[in-house]
Amino acid sequence: MTPPGPEFASGGQRPIEIVRGEGAYLWDATGRRYVDLGATHGVGNLGASPPEVAEAIARQARALLYLGSGYRSPVRTAFLERLLALLPPSFGSVFLSNSGTEAVETAIKIARGATGRPGVVAAFRGFHGRTLGSLSATWRRELREPFEPLVPGFAHVPFNDAAALDAAVTEQTALVLLEPVQGEGGVHVATPEFLRAARAAADRTGALLAFDEVQTGIGRTGRMFAFERWGIVPDLLTLAKSLAGGVPIGATVTTPEVEARFRGTHHSTFGGNPLACAAGLAALELAVRERLPERAERLGLRAQERLRSLPTRSVREVRGLGLLLGIELRERVAPALAELERRGYLAISAGPSVLRLLPPLVIPDAEWDRALDTVAEVVGGG
Ligand SMILES: Cc1ncc(COP(=O)(O)O)c(C=O)c1O
In angstroms, what is the C-alpha Rg of the chain? Predict the structure, then answer.
């Protein structure tokens, strides 16, 4: 369907104009309020327009709007130190960009540039972005096919199949790239055995292990970063979406050892700009102060309990971790999304039959309970 207007919106668009947001709420141009159950596609973990982030942006914009990475920037240093302080001590080096796909592109380039090898092993149902490198790691055929040939050297193995992963990783592998919880691919949680096998295969062959936490990072799954739950530490970590509270950002975190081995150059004009760094610093401070990972854990457990009681005639499975939840329906999800929207709830899908709930982590308890009741009514008749 071609949208009426100047926007190249090939993926479809809802006919609602959103003009304002606060916490877990969004308002359309007519003044109608919606509860945002998709955190504006995973970006709004801290809510829409968190005031502290907005303030930090305004302050920084008045002081210095743009500075490239060719100069040192105190706000960039402060942001990176804050981010690294939240991560295991093996990490010590961050490349900043402007989006999730760039963070993944950077991880692929760092891995190839540090190992001198071409191979990347990713997973069935994985989603890592839509530029040609990250798209080569993305699984879904309909996203890939119109743009082939993609980048050579990429292989995919069944998610959570430790033996298949082990067999696919060889001395030619630069990178093993996995989401700890697959978001776009239908909300599938990795088993600890699978992640352990990925770590072991990378260690055995000298490949690097990357966790793509673009969607799972910043408290979403009940930990600040999903991998913390299992204590399996990767060599590379990709972050974006809510890292700067809504301002475009991407981050590829790695170890000083990997950086020292990297051959080649990589650069981004806008990556690490002061505006995004000021927003990122404010966002991280807010996430820590408000204990958002603990909130996600608590509200997520409550939701799983509630949703697991849904009648199995309409719901095939409920999956997820923290406040990244997937309800796999026995039918297509589009009518349920439309009905939720009619009732004032904006949810999103994860594939044709999975209703995905990833509300802002600041959603009030009572609002979340009402949302779950409404979801239960819509998908299962209460
Ligand atoms: C795990 C993961 N990686 C990468 C991306 C791509 O991020 P962006 O849309 O910012 O390029 C996404 C987006 O949904 C994602 O969920």
Answer: 20
